[in-house]
Amino acid sequence: MRSAVGSAAAPVVAPGRDTALDVWRGVALITIFINHVSGNVLENLTHRNFGFSDAAELFVFFAGYAAAAAYFSRYVWGQKLAITMKVTSRAVSLYITHLALVVLGGAVFSMGVIRTGDLGLFSVIALEPLMMDPAEALVSAATLRYQPGFLNILPLYFVLIGALPLLLALAARNMALAVGLSGSVYLAAGLTGLNFQTFPLPGGWFFNPLSWQFLFVIGFALGARRQRAGQAIPYRRGAWWAAVAYLALALLVMRGTGLPPSGWLPLPDFLALPEKQFLSVPRLLHVLALCYVVAHSPLQGWARGLASRNPLAMLGRHSLPVFCTGLVVSITGVALKQTGFDGALFDVTYVAGGVGVQLGVAALLTLTEKRRNGAGPLPAVVQPS
Description:
By secondary structure, the protein is mainly alpha-helical.
């Protein structure tokens, strides 16, 4: 069986850091933040209103791509134990971060309840179990069965990074096998409804890891291909125009005809309707089509030409701390909107201020990174953040 890394006797020299990836991760983070301050006027302008997928798909896809850039070549060329330990440590950090955010989210809404006396605020992000049955809720939070609203993507990310050593081992032997197994799990979960359990309500994780792992693995495979070939996927005229046509169809459906009813085709809804929990096929195809079209458009050249100190690039390079900061700020914004702060002026001001806070965090981390690495250029391969 041919190895996924080819038969070369020496390591392939990896290309430099992909600035465009950082820029698009920055765009995705801003979009996620806007969508999380739910009910604000800017929410209507994000791309989820114009197609089947949203920024969550971009976040997971880019995470897989960055994971390959950070770890795969070093894993293949002899650092298996070191990379495995590094990835495991990162998964533990993600788990701890998620639990800290659950506590912070509960504290933010508790302050709103204290100020207004309105216990109904706890229902806004599903905090009632934490308040009504704290013992069961805390145990369920620790086992990731209980996930308050807006705090359900980090558990997915934890599972993806926790399973990354297995992906690295499979991909190092045969990338096609790794992608094929991942796709099989994706189809099995989508067609059977298999999911992880949740508390207190049934229904499973909002971001089903058995489904969303496939998008992460696709991103990983493309990131690894860029490491080997210098390009994630080549331009094909027919494929590009087919992707454009699919994006146009999604736009027409979302802004014109509306989604068809369940059962409109003699197929499972997983194959026919854009559903988020199981990352249905229409949603998966949409995010892949979007990335392919943008990657082979003038937008990609613009993104790649930006300096590493560009605000969007800084956001994307430090995506995890920026994302966590955005979660806290967005949850606070939701609480404020529920307690009398509302209107277009508040929305625009708060979103702008929240993006500014995230930029401040990214700039501070960039400055720290520069001091740690000296005055020279940023390293080509860094840990995904």
